[in-house]
Design goal:
about 220 residues; disordered N terminus; alpha+beta; 11 strands; about 35% helix
Length: about 220
Amino acid sequence: MTVLFVLAMFLVFALIDWVLSRGKVEVAATEPAPALGEDYVYGFHVPANRRYHPGHGWAMRERKNVVRVGIDDFAARLAGKIEGIELPKPGQWLRQGQRSWKLFRNGKSSEMVSPIEGEVLEINPEVLKDPALLRRDPYGEGWLMTLHVPDEEGTSRNFIPRDLISGWMESVAEKLYMRQPALAGVVAADAGQPVEDLAEALGEEDWQKLTGEFFL
């Protein structure tokens, strides 16, 4: 009888432990994803220390009359796994809103406009050698060029006002998901980030048309 009692108690404790462990797994599986922070809108990173143009280029002042330029996270994810970049040459003058560089993918190209007006001082040789930098780190190592900007005040008037940036990116993301509802399914719930290559999720045949629409 003692042996049977011990076996019965062992089975009871084993059952209790299994129930508790199952409960822990279920709770862990339903925990919400951590918030991405204030610099994210619909999962797209929009750092507050940049100025943004409606064509999805960014500009950051390095020193007086010298501005660094790149593309925002939305553009980088929409462009996806590009195979090459064509940048203007140093000494070339770019006008704000002018088509200024090309992104290449699977034999197709998409042009983007300059967010600011000025003379090209330097281009980033690393992003030319490794175009994937544009997608992996669009605000850091994936920068495109620096420009000499004589009229900083005048050109800054055409940037999206700082207090409207969040609403602008929200409207852009909603426009994308309304145009391509399938994309909403590839974004993690709540505070999740979109996939790194939105074009791949859409299908390659839509890449040139879609980027052309959003890149102005």
